[in-house]
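re: that chain from earlier
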Amino acid sequence: MKYTLSHHGREYSASFKKNLRRYINFRNFVARTLFRKFSPIASSLKELNEIREKTVIGTDISDHLETLFIESMAVKPKLIVELGTRTGESTFVFERVAKLRDAFLLSIDIEPQLAKSSWKKWSFVQADDITFADRFVEWCRKKGILPEIDVLFIDTDHEYEHTKKEIAKWFPFLSDKAVVFFHDANVKMVYKRRNGTVGKAYDDDRDVMRAIEEYVGAKFNEGKDFTEISNGWLVRHHAICNGMTVLRRVSK
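^ sequence. v structure.
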């Protein structure tokens, strides 16, 4: 009996799946036994406290939620575009940024939305993000929004070709001060979190990182944290929790 573990269609035996599950359960048991429950450091900002509380629930993006908030707040955005919403963790963060900065938040996903936002300047569009990019200017015109993106978050199917198309379609809309987030830039069969626990992902072909490397014209080791400058971009990478790569313009 075999099953598909990877989004690339690789197949692994049932015994492999069973052993992997045992390893993850054991690793997490040890981590939670050795380390007392993580208590987030309190902040004077209510929204940051809410985000830190959410990171306690370990997911494949939980270690990056505070990074999303801080990096986004720093650019004082007027328009945030989120490609891929999944269970709404990133939406949770960007909603708070949008409220604090009085910004528009546009969430796009090919699947129906799983998390709603109460922010008056939030919109959800169910569509393929590549296709919708061709309608983005018209959508902004109808909403009375300038089509200049200050925060762009990319967390869709993570395929190399799709990620290349997202860069080609969406980067022309970036403002001069824009920051871009790519989630799943360091995907392994088992991903690690800062609290010592692990989770199951899949074994990819460096798809997201390959697309980033091609765009900025450099080679990176996504298995380690790094900060580099290439082709007019500051590239900062966080290897933990399936990886998050952050791009920010340094010149244009």
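The CA atoms of residues 227 and 236 lie 4 Å apart.
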